[in-house]
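The authors assume throughout that readers already know how a fold can be written as discrete tokens. For illustration, here is how one protein appears when written out as sequence plus structure tokens.
>
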Amino acid sequence: MRDWLVWIGTAAAVVVASWGVLVLLARRLPPGLARDLAAFLPDCATAVRRLRKDPRVPRRAKVAVVVAGLWVASPIDLIPEFLPVIGPLDDVVVVALALRYAARQVPREVLLAAWPGETRLVERLLGPPRRDRPAG
């Protein structure tokens, strides 16, 4: 049992350290693609926390967003995190799908208000705004 606890503690420490590196890179890198990618997952975690607490977000969307947040925080991945560039790819795809699903459930302004990073990134992720059909 003790071996499992040591393994779980080590895995948690590695995840926390990798998040720390991402946050540091997001603050230190010059503006550009590398900085945007480094800031994406920490921004997603903040958006998940904000959307989960927002009363305007329906339960289905909250569940999708929380599942995406748990996926990102989980040390178990389809693509190992230590692989450069493609390591966080599965996390990004899951978060993108969850945010697009939530975007269909809540007003776009709510999602944009919950996103702490560059607005252009989340707008690109969400796609063009939906136009409601005219009554008739």
About this structure: The radius of gyration is 17 Å. The CA atoms of residues 60 and 105 lie 8 Å apart. DSSP finds six helices and no strands in the chain.
